[in-house]
Write a structure and sequence with these properties.
This protein has about 230 residues and is of the alpha/beta class. Helix content is about 50%, strand content about 15%. Strands 3-2-1-4-5 form a 5-stranded mixed β-sheet, with helices on both faces. It is globular, with a radius of gyration of 22 Å. It starts with 9 loop residues before the first helix and ends with a helix. Mean pLDDT is about 90; it is low at about 220-234.
Length: about 230
């Protein structure tokens, strides 16, 4: 179904009809990965973006690496402003992936060198005073959101290739931290690294520290008899 959607500047044109001029497309990548940060990008494109449509800009997941990197360069040449932000695995584990994704998007918007007057966001809202449109399948419908999707994906993929050298054995350069069969096998063999998301079920299942934490949390510090005796101390 997604392949049948047409990615264009129709959402942006509709907003300009209502008086908005500085429209930022916002998207995130890496939400479902088991390793590393979630990455968000915010992109403000000029009004004339027909060349991006002709170049085939659309949801980054529907593009090859070569196509994404070519479009990333084109977007960066054309964009009025671009910002990329990361939220690390430790924060993801602390606040959950949904809130971490929103946080990354907010950071990306706040990092723009030009203040937007409207945000086009892929299926989400963020805690920003700017007016927003939550657009489902936004990266397949809006060129601004698709541009953010491509920029974020190219950034994160490059980061995963770098981290593969620092954390060898997991195959990060190939699967980019997602839960492929080869990644899960490596998790069983090597255990999780410091950059794995330990609250995600496939990681937690092979994390010895998680098992210890669970045992401690389930144990009582005193048994019932000790608790009854402690009442005499008061």
């Amino acid at each position: 179904m997604l392949k049948q959607l047409v990615c264009s500047d129709a959402p942006e044109q509709a907003l300009r009809y209502h008086g908005f001029r500085v429209i930022a497309g916002v998207d995130e990548v890496g939400r479902g990965a088991l390793f590393g940060p979630v990455v968000a990008a915010a992109v403000i494109l000029p009004e004339r973006v027909s060349s991006l449509a002709r170049a085939g800009l659309k949801d980054s997941k529907q593009l090859t690496r070569q196509e994404r990197e070519k479009l990333d360069r084109k977007v960066r040449r054309m964009a009025l402003a671009i910002s990329v932000a990361e939220v690390d695995a430790e924060t993801i584990d602390r606040v959950n992936i949904y809130q971490a994704s929103r946080q990354a998007m907010l950071m990306a918007v706040m990092g723009l060198s030009i203040a937007p007057d409207h945000l086009l966001i892929d299926a989400m809202r963020i805690d920003h005073p700017c007016q927003q449109t939550k657009l489902f399948y936004g990266d397949s419908l809006s060129l601004s959101i698709a541009a953010a999707s491509v920029v974020a994906k190219v950034h994160r993929d490059a980061l995963m290739r770098e981290l593969d050298l620092m954390h060898p054995g997991y195959g990060l350069a190939s699967h980019k931290g997602y839960g492929t069969p080869s990644h899960r096998r490596a998790l069983v063999e090597l255990g999780p690294s410091v950059l794995h998301r330990r609250t995600f079920a496939p990681v937690r299942a092979v994390d010895p520290d998680a098992a210890v934490e669970e045992m401690v949390s389930e144990e009582l510090l005193f048994d019932d008899g000790e608790l009854e005796e402690s009442a005499d101390w008061v």
